[in-house]
Amino acid sequence: MQLLFLLLLLWPGPPVVPGMEDTAFPHLGESSQPLPRPCPPRCSCPREDMVGCDGLDLRVFPDNIARGAQHLSLQNNQLQELPYNELSRLSGLQTLNLHNNLISSEGLPDEAFESLTQLQHLYVANNKLSVAPQFLPRSLRVADLAANQVTEIFPLTFGEKPALRSVYLHNNQLSNAGLPPDAFRGSEAIATLSLSSNRLRYLPPSLPPSLERLHLQNNLIAKVPRGALSRQTQLRELYLQHNQLTDGGLDATTFSKLRSLEYLDLSHNQLAEVPAGLPRTLAILHLGRNRIRQVEGTRLQGAQSLRYLLLQHNQLGGTGLAPGALRPLRRLHTLHLYGNRLDRVPQALPRRLRALVLPHNQVATLGARDLAAMRRLVELNLAYNRLASARIHRRAFRPLRALRSLDLAGNELTRLPTGLPSSLLALRLPRNQLRALEPEPLAGLAQLQELNLAYNRLRIGDIGLGTWHELQALKVLDLSHNELSFVPPDLPEALEELHLQGNCISHVGPQAFVSTPRLRALFLRANRLHMTSIAPEAFLGLPLLHVVDTSDNPEQVLVRLQPTAPRRPRAGGP
Description:
Elements: H1 2-10, E1 50-52, E2 71-73, H2 84-89, E3 95-97, E4 121-123, E5 142-144, H3 155-158, E6 166-168, E7 192-194, E8 213-215, E9 237-239, E10 263-265, E11 284-286, H4 297-300, E12 308-310, E13 334-336, E14 355-357, E15 379-381, E16 405-407, E17 426-428, H5 439-442, E18 450-452, E19 476-478, E20 497-499, E21 521-523, E22 547-549
C-alpha cells in the first residue's frame, strides 16, 4: 500500500497532446474521460478518421498516425519515399493524398499498397515518378499520377479495378511503347482518362469501352488506327487538339461509332478537310488552327445536332464556304470564322444562327441582302475587315431585328452605319476613321447600353446637336483617343462610365457633368490637364462617382469628389 502511494506521488501525469495542454486530467475516483486520440505533431486531426499534414515541409513520413485513419493528406511537403512498415499499419485508408512532393519510383516500393485493400482515392501528382506503381489496390476509384516523369505503366497498375472511374496521367512522358495493350483490362467502369501532354504517336488500342471523357491533347498523334474508337459508344468528350493529325490519319469510320459524342476538339492539327463520318449527336466541333481550304456540305450532313462550329484560323477563301454548305445544320447556334480569307459574309447560313464571328477576314462589302436570312442573329462580329462606309448598303443591318451586339472595330468607316436595329445593346466602332457623329444613325437605339468610339478622329465640332438625345439607356461611352478639346455636352442621363483618355482636353468646366448624375467612373488620363484645370464644382451632383483617373497629364490634377453622405439608420434600428 505504501509502495502504491509512493508511485502515485512520483508519476508525472499523462503525455501532453498538442492542443490539449489545458485539458484537466480526471481525478481518481471520478468517471474517466476517453484519452485524446493520437495525432502527428503540427498535423490536424479534425475527426478520428482524418489526418491532415499539408504544407509542413515534411521530409519524413509522420509517425503516430492512428491505425483507424481513413483519409490521410500529405500534399505540399518534401517527402522522398513512403516507408512500407508505416503504410502497412494503415490498412483502413480510403484516401491518400501525396500531391506535390519529391517521391521517386525508388521511394515507392511495389509492395507499398499491398495492405491498403480499401484505398479508393490516390493522388500522387506533381512528384518524380519515372514508372507507375506495378500494383495498385483493386478497390481504387480515382488515381492521379499527373505531372510526373512516367514512361511506363503496367497491366495491374490500372487493370483489374472494377470500381475505377478516373485516371489522370497527363503531363508525363508516356509513349505508346510504355502503355501495354491490356493496360485497362478488367476496369470496365473508367469514365475519365487523361493522357494529354505525353509522347503518344497514335491512339492507344484497347481503351476502356466505358469512357465518357478522353483527353489526348498535346501529344504527337498523327493517326487514329481503324477501329480504335469502335467500342467507345458512351464517349461524350474527345480532346485531340495540338497533335499532328492529317486527313490520312482519319477515315470515314474514325468517329462514326461514337453515338454519344457531343464535344470533339481537333484544333491545332494539320487537317485540310472537315472529317467524314461525324456522329449525329455532336454539338460542338472545334476545327480551328488547321489548314482547311474548303468546307464540303456533305461532310457535315450527318452532324444535324451541331450547335457550335469553330473554323477560325484556317485557309478559307472566297469559295471556301460555298452557299448552302452549312444549311443542313439547322440547329447551328454559333459560327466562328475568325482569321480566314473570306471576302464576303457567307450566304445561305442556317436560319437559327445566333452568333456569327468573322473578324480578321477580308470582307469589304455588305449588300442589302447579305444578312437578310439571319433574322435571329444576336451577335455579329465583323471587326478588322475592309469595310468602308460607301460599301455598306443603308439597309444591310435592318433585317437583324434580334441583334444585340455589333462589332465593327478596325475597319475603314468614316461615318456611322445607317439602319441599325433598335434591339442593339452594344455597338463597337473603335479604330476606324470616324470624323463625324450625327443623330440620325443613332435614332431609335433606345436600348443601347454600350457605345465604343475609341481611336477615331472625332472633334467636338464633329458631334452634331442632339446626337445623344435618344440614347437614354446608355451606360458606357468610350470616346478615348480622339481629338476632343473638352467634355462633350448633353451626354445621356443614364451614363455610368465615361472614357475620355487620350484626347486634347485642357479644361473641365463646372457644368461638364450636369446631365450625367449617375456617373460612377470617369477616365481623363493622358489629356492636357493642369493642376487647376478642373472646376471645383465639376463633380457636385455626382454622389455615385468613385473613380476619377487623371494620371499622365502634364501636371498632377486636383480632384475634389463630393463626400459620401452617411447612411441613415433603418427605422427601428439601434
